Amino acid sequence: MAEAVLALFPDAKFAIGPSIEDGFYYDFDLPRPLTPDDLPVIEARMREIVAADQSFVRRELSREEAQDLFVDQPYKLELLDDLPDGHITVYTQGQFTDLCRGPHVERAGQIGAFRLLRTAGAYWRGDESRQMLQRIYGVAFETEAELQAHLDKLAEAAKRDHRKLGKDLDLFSIHEEVGPGLVCWHPNGAMVRQIIEDFWKEEHHKRGYGIVYTPHIGKLDQWKQSGHWEFYRENLYSPMDVDGQQYLLKPMNCLGHILIYKSRLRSYRELPIRMAELGTVYRYERGGVLYGLTRVRGFTQDDAHIFCRQDQIRDEVIAVVQLAQFMMQTFGFQDYKLVLATRPDKHAGTPEVWEHATAALTAALESLNLDYEEDPGGGAFYGPKIDVKLADAMGRDWQGPTIQVDFNLPQRFDVCYIGDDGGEHLVTMIHRTVLGSMERFFACLVEHYGGSFPIWLSPVQARIVPIADRHIEYALKVEDTLRRSGIRVDVDSRSERMGFKIRDAQMAKVPYMLIVGDKEIESEGASLRLRSGEDIGLCSIDEVQNRVRSAIDSRS
Amino acid sequence: MAEAVLALFPDAKFAIGPSIEDGFYYDFDLPRPLTPDDLPVIEARMREIVAADQSFVRRELSREEAQDLFVDQPYKLELLDDLPDGHITVYTQGQFTDLCRGPHVERAGQIGAFRLLRTAGAYWRGDESRQMLQRIYGVAFETEAELQAHLDKLAEAAKRDHRKLGKDLDLFSIHEEVGPGLVCWHPNGAMVRQIIEDFWKEEHHKRGYGIVYTPHIGKLDQWKQSGHWEFYRENLYSPMDVDGQQYLLKPMNCLGHILIYKSRLRSYRELPIRMAELGTVYRYERGGVLYGLTRVRGFTQDDAHIFCRQDQIRDEVIAVVQLAQFMMQTFGFQDYKLVLATRPDKHAGTPEVWEHATAALTAALESLNLDYEEDPGGGAFYGPKIDVKLADAMGRDWQGPTIQVDFNLPQRFDVCYIGDDGGEHLVTMIHRTVLGSMERFFACLVEHYGGSFPIWLSPVQARIVPIADRHIEYALKVEDTLRRSGIRVDVDSRSERMGFKIRDAQMAKVPYMLIVGDKEIESEGASLRLRSGEDIGLCSIDEVQNRVRSAIDSRS
């Protein structure tokens, strides 16, 4: 692709062009903005190059040779500065040479099928203060059939895109006036969120968690003491001055929970103490990586901290994994995998402490007979963790629940309990979320269900559609009956054609439509229709009510 | 009192000594800290002064005369700088003269009964950067009986103090490590708050409100456009820098709601649109005025904005007043008064706009046949408002619901609807809360009920107390039965004496205690006891369950 772009734009400057999970891209500095019409032209040129079937030849260069070769390519020169001597390699096919670590296919003809998908703006090195480049995304496969299957999947994913459905279903919005990565939840989206939160709270109360609220700001000193300021600073907001002291937007809920724990003496008999919060935290992310609800700057964690004795870790982790499994199952995720992430390079705490924590997590997973992968070095700076990756209806991975053991914060904040020996002992903390964040989990739900939420989560569960104005009175009576049994129902009393109103309800993914006209009034019922288009026919109001209620109650 | 203090501390410097709602105070700069033991000594001296029965003589002085008189009193000299010529008066009794606007009683002997209550630190002029002074608070009455009644009331208020009960009942805490005025809600307090919030959400859904969530930070520019930066700056936090732009902690929820409203075109047919949020806002208050949960720096408003046409204002205000009345009644407040607050000196908008808004509020109050007071100049900078002041069980006033019409923000943000004429019209906004803030309302509830929350709000509704260890199994079975019917219940299975456990449950204000022993197991029941100490006697578990459930369901 780079060779084809150079053929069309002889002055093109090349930045970087890696392979990524879903294909590849290349960033260019070009004399004019690309348009969608450019992509077929570049593709045509690429087909000629593939047909010419040149071989890719790898060469290792000295720094000076490379600098000579790329003298007109300032981005390559900058990349060269970061490469250690002896690791500078280029690949050449025909007349075209590019800096590349490789590997490559042997010959261009081996490339079976490809497609350029789209262009996007991208800052050089992801740094908003530097040059804005033009990125071309593409995919390549061995066969045309595989390419087509991938394109079909992309089309389906685009239909399910939570950013698109967020707009179509009036779920949420993100506004330049407020700031990127900061989410406004509209009534429809907030309704789904509230149902999830209510369910979450109920399940946590049942399992012996105490739910708390803690402030969104606090003195910076706490975050220095915790180590976050040291280990995590690039993701923290800039401090605010209050009465000459620095305050920080909280990036985590831990410290408030520690203060509540420490607000009185705790005995070994009281442990474990499980403290949960739907805590909204703010973390700085570079503008370039923000994406819909999945990568944001403010999000609400379904957070909890378990304060326990060392001998309780295993059982507590088991209970959290089981709660996470229950949650995944309830929300309709059958497939997920567990990843045990271990000590990263940048970390707090001693090797012994890390070993102990990792062993406890392993023991819990093994006692549940669960398969898991390891992610060496993937842990948080303060401890090892178990991450759960959900697979959605399209088989894509989502970051789900996480469970992290922490021997670090108890030490830094002297979080103790009085043991049966009458002495003070450091408590062990387990950080955990079972959904992740409301924002990301909601995005995942939207895409998993393509916006057709299960009944119990649907913002509007039933819509009554009177055929003519004279049926409105009856419609309102039915609405009242259903509402009294706790069903979220509305009436579309607009003076529009029936077909329009039904299509509208289907677009809004309302699970049940109740059409009411003369026939239905006479039989004191309603004609039931599903959002799938399926026509159930005339039912009594009791039947409708039972059907909807049982779908709600079973969370099916 | 000042004369008595001078007699005991000849070097005392005098600051200010006003009468306040509940008595009087005087701020002194003294050579040593006062102790509680000093107060009786000062009182004794005061009694001598009263007995001497000198008259108070008023004199008007020129600035120069006053400056000569107070040459050794630097605080008085500073006060003099702020007094206009011709308004400088002093009062003398015996040898003692003080700067005072008056009026005074004629003779010291007219003071019937008094008591000095406590000392406190107070910054000169409330400014944390200036001298810390010592304040003595006192009260005075015509008769000893009135004084005693007041002291009794203070003792009762102290018992109900939400700061004291907040600690005793483990409801919340405020930590120096986080920052003053920032509240951590403990599981018990958070449970009460959650029940209030769930009830609040349910009632708002029923009344056609859409509930939303909006971010706690946003670009400062919005708050410049809104006028808050101009009119309200002293109560805003310092901005944060994000990517070179200034962001502010939100002091109000309005702007997020406006953006959601504006996220699509709105027709006159859709109005009114009612948007509600339990929105946590942050406002800067000086350290000196912070007080428990009633004056804080971060609080959650039960906020809503109604976007409507001008012809809908009256009906919407009526509905809000009725909702507020319903809320007050449900939470057990029979007495409240309505205050209509009108245009303040510092305000946005034209006189016409203010007149229109004030007329709409008046019309609503009158159509409900409600008595109300006027508070001239007490409105918000952006519009007139109706405030509801609750009277608690002790007859004290609390700031409750508020309803504010706003013609200002729609203009500043061009918030429109498409009229039946096809043209754009500015919408009218009504800001309203029906509880105020969760923090203040909760404090009010705590004091109103003296911590003995109504059953439906109690964090723990029933506690089962097994008499001996062999009764624990049965206790757990009863717990399970009650929990399944949605009662918040626990078991005190500690190896403590019965009397201790009952006293403990009473201290925790748990409404129902179920004592279970051999007799109760045999009859498959429990001995029921109320937190008042009343002994109901042996009941079947069904009876207990019905009794508790009916108290919960009726919110009585």
What does this structure look like?
- The structure is a homodimer of 556-residue chains.
- Chain A contains 18 helices and 28 strands.
- The first copy, chain A, is an alpha+beta fold and 556 residues long.
- The first copy, chain A, folds into 3 domains: 2-158, Threonyl-trna Synthetase, Chain A, domain 2 (Threonyl-tRNA Synthetase, Chain A, domain 2, 2-Layer Sandwich); 167-449, BirA Bifunctional Protein, domain 2; 455-553, Rossmann fold.
- In chain A, the strands form 7 sheets. Chain A has an 8-stranded mixed beta sheet with strand order 11-15-16-23-20-19-17-18.
- In chain A, β5 (89-93) and β6 form a beta hairpin.
- The radius of gyration of chain A is 29 Å and the shape is globular.
- In chain A, 38% of the residues are buried.
- The mean pLDDT of chain A is 94.
- The interface between A and B is large, with 54 and 55 residues.
